[in-house]
Amino acid sequence: MESYKDLDSKYKFILLVSKRARQLLKGAKPKIKSKSKSLIRIAQEEVKKGVIDFKVIDEDEREKKGKKKEGEDSKSV
Predict the structure, then answer these.
(1) What is the pLDDT of residue 76?
(2) 39-49 and 10-25 helices cross at what angle (nearest 10)?
(3) Residues 52/46, Cβ–Cβ less than 8 Å
(4) Does the domain made of 10-76 have the CATH classification 3.40.1350?
């Protein structure tokens, strides 16, 4: 696979494209001009061109966020 920014696998590429396509479906404006009208194709082009910012969260950060959210839920009850 060609390297698109920090994407090191096809799996991450597909996850990022699907999340961006959902944003476009919900009304987000495309960040590029495209000949295609397919939102999935537009999302793919955006990711390939590197115009989509993203952050890869490692397991430690994911666990911290999960614990923080659980703690917030118990306070509001």
Answers:
(1) 42
(2) 130
(3) yes
(4) no
Cα distance between residue 22 and residue 30, in whole Å? 12
| Rounded-to-integer distance, Cα 67 and Cα 9, Å | 28
Instruction: Output the six-digit token pair for 76.
Output: 């509001």
C-beta of residue 34 within 8 angstroms of C-beta of residue 42: yes
CA–CA dist 30, 10 (Å, integer): 22
DSSP 3-state of 25 = helix
Place of tokens 């430690």: 60
How confident is residue 1, by pLDDT bands cut at 50, 70 and 90?
very low
- Take residue 52 and report the two structure tokens written for it: 């989509």
| pTM greater than the 0.85 cutoff | no
Residue 4, SS3? strand
